[in-house]
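Order emerges. As here.
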Amino acid sequence: MNKPSYNPFAVERLLVLLASLFALVACTGDKVAAPTYHDDLDGAIGSLAGRIAEQLPGGLLSVGKGGSIVVVDAFFNEQSAEVTNSGVQVQKGLVERLAKANDTYEFAALSTRNLSKSSLAILGSVRLAGKTADNEKSYARIEAVVREVETGKVVANAVAFVASKQFDATPTRLYMDMPMFLAGDEHQQRLQVVSGNAAPVKDVIGVSARIAEATEQYNAGNFSESGRLFQEALDASGGKSLLALSGLYQSQFRGGDFLAAERTFGDLVAAAIGSGKLSIKFLFEVNGTAFAATGDLTRQYPMWQRQIAKQIAEGSACLEVLGHASRSGTEAYNDRLSSRRAEFVASSLQSIRPDLKGRLTSTGKGFSENIVGSGTDDAQDAIDRRVEFKIVPCRS
């Protein structure tokens, strides 16, 4: 008699499905249909729009203060905190489909102007699938939630899955140009808002609206205007938004104000270290330990290294440089490669600031701490090839 085969991905998918159902029931108290699986993104968007429309009868939309506009934010990646091409497609698709389904209310992209006339906001995130025996059959999970802007009350939500191969995980221009991955406290707060947990929804959405406007200008190449708007977003966050600070740096650098850009990058590094984790986008040669000579980000590496070394040296903390690798190749090979890359970064910083000797250690993590884990070696799992700086106790 043949033993039943064990499919770990099927089990994982079942657990995700059950968790989604429990979460939805807890938020709405109503019977919720099971998430649907789709071979194309358009089908997933249609499912999300249909589920949301079902939960938003005309009377419910008028609950609370505000106008007739329902704002929709771009959907972000849960693992990397980035907005991707398909994340923007989901936003635009929901605006178009919901507008057709409801002629009483206007659905529009999130902006400060639209938010001022809105009582409801549609927010969402995407979780990319990890590596499976057959990545052709893996799915990305898309979650959407509708919350009252003033009270934070959840009034609708929906989940749909789309084949991973049909989800374009390439970051939009702003996120592609970012010097670091910003998956810290600010990102966790956004995740709480999407999941329906208690969070200062109005404040989070207010900052997100300003960042959305700044991002639109940045992606269009209007760096002077994007810099002004990112500064407004930074001020609105009380100086706490690393996303706004990064956008300000990028706008200054792209606009040619290199002195201001270096100062802002120093502030960004100091803030990231203060949060306990700094994840830099250092690109290396394939199978090598030297920085890659290609790519736009590499032109900025000398300045990054100067500021990272400066900020660490001027502080009192000791840091561990952690090298990471994507899930392709053998475990032993990636352990060695990530270790050598971490050593290279640590020694480069010490050559800039010799007084860092004894305060930096290096460790290779291979792919043991992958965040995405797809092993696709593309934009989808770029965060798995990061270099991190982690605060550790100083050796006596």
Summary: The domain at 276-396 is CATH 3.30.1330.60 (60s Ribosomal Protein L30; Chain: A;). DSSP finds 13 helices and eleven strands in the chain. Confidence is low (pLDDT under 50) at residues 1-31, 59-66. The chain has three domains: 8-171, 180-257, 276-396.
